[in-house]
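> tool_call: predict_assembly(chains=two)
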Amino acid sequence: MRVVIAEDLFLLRDGLIRLLEAYGFEVAAAVDNGADFLAAVRAGPPDVAVVDVRLPPTFTDEGLRAALRARDEVPGLPILVLSQYVEQLYARELLADGAGAVGYLLKDRVLDGAQFTDAVKRVADGGTAMDPEVIARLLARNAAEGPLARLSPREREVLGLMAEGRSNTAIAARLVVTERAVAKHTAAIFTKLDLQQSDDDNRRVLAVLAYLGQ
Amino acid sequence: MIWKQIPLSLVRALGFFGLLLAGVALFAVVTGPVVLAALGLGRLIDLLLIAHRGPGGGGDVSRDMLATVAGLICCRFVLPVALLAIRRLAMLTRRLMERWCGVPIASAYRPRPVGPGRLGYQRRMSWLLGDPGTWRDLLWLVVNATAGLVLLLLPAVLTGLGVVVFLQPLLSDRPHVMFAIGLAFVAAGLGTAPLLLRGYADLARLVLAPSEEAKLELRVRHLAQTRRETLDTGAAELRPVVQVAMGLTLDAAGRLIDTDPAAARALLIEARDASARALAELRDLVRGIHPPVLADRGLADAVRALALDSPLRARVTGSLDGRPPAPVESAAYFAVSELLANVAKHAGANGAEVDLRHSSGSLRISVSDDGDGGADPSRGTGLAGVGRRLAAFDGVLVVSSPAGGPTLVTMEVPCALS
């Protein structure tokens, strides 16, 4: 799986390369600014890109802008954005095109190599990997209206874990219930959100998008 | 005591007189080029008009041209230096007033604008000329050269006159009277010296002390800066602490890895969790002081992010074509943040709406909600606090909240966008 990395801190960039290569990824390019990232994507879209929000020269949201630009040029390009902070505003901007294949994680998550590379793979496969902090803030809002209001609190919790990118097995372990129970919840979620029978992965993504875009 | 005071006063008056002369010289340096350039320009225009009217006019055009150019060149290179020198002189005067006369005079200058490299001429001049402190200093030079001069020299002149009169008796036929008059002059001169010096100091304070407004402005700038610095040092201090702790844990893990791999593994996981916790703490600290979206995108998007984080259904309308000065931006952000929190807590509202725009030199932000109304800034501390903080920027907060709602809070802060 080919990866392009855009990260300006040498140590973190180096660490990401080692980590991803150790887990069998092929690092096609590792750059330290937005312009070079766009050039690398244009030279040959990778299977997934890992981009830091804060990049030179402005050190504001240069990386996010470059990521959105890349998605514009290569629709559906899987991108995982890393940041020192997570902001719902930025999460929404990343998800706005409705194509999925988006990750938005705190940099801290890199510390857990196995979980992080899992997230990269999920994003490459078209799924989402939203940081638990984004989800926690979403859960703090009372979803008083829209289709999400029809979900029970437990179903909303399951949906939040789905948005983080967890599999049914992982959700079951987290909530200390059986996988069958989780499957029942997800089926209920799909029905309540009017998601027709289709490939399960796709419905997961759509449910998550509905949830994050509320 | 008084015997010690009098000669000291005279010496100090002499010192101030020296400063006065330096001030006069600098004043000439500042006004000279400006006057020269203006006069030269005026003459040139004059000549052009005459020439336009027909022959017979004219004059030494090259001389006026030279005056104008010389004046402008002096303005370009000498003016900023001279203005800064005047500032130094005023600072020295303030210091000496405190040390010699016991009259402390506060100073309040705007800090030098920060930027990469040297300041350009334009920014430098607008910094200097835009500062009321500069004009206070110039006014002092004028006052000092007139009223100040009288106060400083009166004792010396009186004493001098007295000595002259005193010496007259040697030639005169009525020595006692002249003796008496001479002595009276000397006594008056010496006796009033400390008093007049005190008066001089009071005069200086009157002119040189900054207005309350200028002091407040400086204080706000100072607070904004120290807050940022606190944050930076806070972040900088947290890091080494975390690194040392991590280093120790990793060291222990390294020693254990052969003998007790399980314990080493536990230590490594502990180190990882500790660093994750430290990062989370740091993030919360930063978010409370220096919100990331505000730094990245400015006020409008930062308010949008606030609306997203609010438990209410909050809508944001309007936009800004630039960014207000950082302290205003930050004050406005935290004001909106507090208002939205207030609405969520007290108003019993479902939805809120924030509108922000900049028109006729003011940033206007309104926060409205569909709650129960009845918000009263004179009772609740929240609204009054927001109002007070905006007042530091000459901002106002108006609340309209009839019982039963809706509530509309409007804030207005004069500022320019950049």
